[in-house]
Backbone:
């Protein structure tokens, strides 16, 4: 067959341009972007009977032949800003001791070519963000099902969202099959020095590696094959980029979203601990636990909702008396707050994107609704004394999410988020 639609033909002119770019010091990913992190899985993995498969929109047929990523001319290298904090340590001896999982590159799972070459930043990421796809919890654990899922995600991201390629860097199926998401992510991971710009979470698309995990994990936990691969993949990423095992977060830590689901999000302390074990480290319970903002949504009730209502009234988007019920009135107030503050996720869910703006600093002796929210939470938590300055870490403790603070570093200017 000929070259599939969407991939540039490697003409003599393109080859000359790529050669000239390389000579000028530009980034032109080649074999590094096509490699495997480990040997491919043994062929012939059994698939469950067809009756156990959950059909869905991810069943998008893929091309039978896909030219290699080296046929896409590479972009110029983008320098990394000095103000972004560096990871704990660089790749080196640690990376050599960590077993690398097999990661199928874009060619292997039948990816379309990107609309244009992804941007590569000359810096290492400092954290990992864990996502779930919010799709069906399929019982088909086969390689073929994993590849269909990856193609379905790519099609949605490119055709519905209008992005240049898959938004995430890597994808893990319920059967534990790990795949490269955005083109060149694997090659740059193997190199351990640069990162491909993703589109998985605004503000975190360069400084964080995004991993999509197939399924919905609100009430159910991930199956063992997925969990084992997630642990191995995170350990390999940490080793290659020098990311500390404590720097694993959920999507909801930075956005107004339920992602990666209550169950998977609640397992992140375990994930940090197990990844640390693979890296030869031991984490204390305190180190493994991170402070977070509570996720509040319509239908919730109680003191946390009442405190949020006081803060919303303080911000000018809620009228009336706080009553601790996340009803239509509160939903509208949260949505209005998100619009005013230009939130990426304007959905009425109070999560990691809006809490930091809503929970403003309150100083001793202050009056008003923000101070009332502090008093309410202190009484609810039976706290005898509150610090003179109630900042984000103190707010999180009052809200019941004790642990080391979640860092607030964001992407450098110039990230396109697509």
Residues:
């Amino acid at each position: 067959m000929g070259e599939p639609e969407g991939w540039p033909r490697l003409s003599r002119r393109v080859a000359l341009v790529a050669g000239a770019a390389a000579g000028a010091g530009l980034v032109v990913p080649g074999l590094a972007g096509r490699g495997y992190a480990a040997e491919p899985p043994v062929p012939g993995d059994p698939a469950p009977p067809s009756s156990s498969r959950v059909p869905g929109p991810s069943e998008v047929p893929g091309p039978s032949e896909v030219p290699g990523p080296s046929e896409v001319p590479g972009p110029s290298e983008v320098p990394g800003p000095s103000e972004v904090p560096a990871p704990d340590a660089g790749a080196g001896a640690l990376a050599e001791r960590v077993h690398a999982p097999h990661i199928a590159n874009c060619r292997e799972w039948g990816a379309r070519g990107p609309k244009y070459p992804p941007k590569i930043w000359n810096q290492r990421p400092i954290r990992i963000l864990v996502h779930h796809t919010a799709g069906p919890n399929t019982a088909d654990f086969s390689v073929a099902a994993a590849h269909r899922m990856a193609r379905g995600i790519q099609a949605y991201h490119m055709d519905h969202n209008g992005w240049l390629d898959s938004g995430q860097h890597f994808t893990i199926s319920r059967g534990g099959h790990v795949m490269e998401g955005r083109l060149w992510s694997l090659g740059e991971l193997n190199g351990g020095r640069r990162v491909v710009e993703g589109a998985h979470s605004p503000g975190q698309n360069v400084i964080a590696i995004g991993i999509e995990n197939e399924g919905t994990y609100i009430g159910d936990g991930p199956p063992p094959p997925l969990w084992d691969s997630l642990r191995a993949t995170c350990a390999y990423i940490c080793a290659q980029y020098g990311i500390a095992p404590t720097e694993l977060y959920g999507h909801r830590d930075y956005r107004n979203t339920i992602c990666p689901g209550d169950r998977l999000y609640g397992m992140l302390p375990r994930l940090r601990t197990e990844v640390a074990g693979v890296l030869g480290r031991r984490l204390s319970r305190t180190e493994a636990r991170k402070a977070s903002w509570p996720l509040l949504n319509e239908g919730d009730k109680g003191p946390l909702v009442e405190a949020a209502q006081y803060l919303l009234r303080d911000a000018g988007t809620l009228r009336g008396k706080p009553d601790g019920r996340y009803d239509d009135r509160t939903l509208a107030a949260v949505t209005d707050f998100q619009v005013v503050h230009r939130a990426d996720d304007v959905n009425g869910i109070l999560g990691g994107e809006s809490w930091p703006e809503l929970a403003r600093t309150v100083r001793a002796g202050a009056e008003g609704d923000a101070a009332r929210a502090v008093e309410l939470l202190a009484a609810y938590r039976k706290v005898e004394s509150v610090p003179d300055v109630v900042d984000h870490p103190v707010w999180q403790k009052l809200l019941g999410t004790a642990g080391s603070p979640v860092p607030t570093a964001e992407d450098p200017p110039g990230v396109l988020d697509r």
